[in-house]
Amino acid sequence: MVAGGLVIALPKRGLMHRRIGYVYVISMLLTNSSAFLIYHLFGRFGPFHALAIFSTITIAGGFVPALFRKKVKNWLHWHYYFMNWSVVGLYAAFWAELTTRTLPMGRFWMLVLIATAITTGLGSFFIRKHAKRLTGA
């Protein structure tokens, strides 16, 4: 979460951005991989496994274009949107987990949906707000 926040908040297109980005990508790949070791919630493949797959897709969607930027048309556009949505997803999962563990309402899925909706709404606003400035599009 720290690396995701830093890579979003700090200046782009530099060595520091790249290094923190690598830390973020590796951390997220390890986190998503570890999600597949958890089966005690549903006893089988569950919604959190599907979200780990989706998260891995967003990581790949942002990392691969940056890695092959000379071969990918509009690589910065793809990198910007996929990586930002990856971080928003991470924070949505954090807020959903935090609210379900701290609020005594007993409505797990409702809390997950509310926390996710608020986080993705705010994320969408800021992604769009800064897109033109950061991608030039």
UniProtKB/TrEMBL annotation:
InterPro entries in the cross-refs: DUF2306_membrane (IPR018750)
Membrane-spanning ranges: 21-42, 48-68, 80-96, 108-127
Sections of the chain in a coiled coil: none
Record keywords, A-Z: Membrane, Transmembrane, Transmembrane helix
Pfam family, one: DUF2306
Name assigned to this protein: DUF2306 domain-containing protein
Organism: Arsenicibacter rosenii
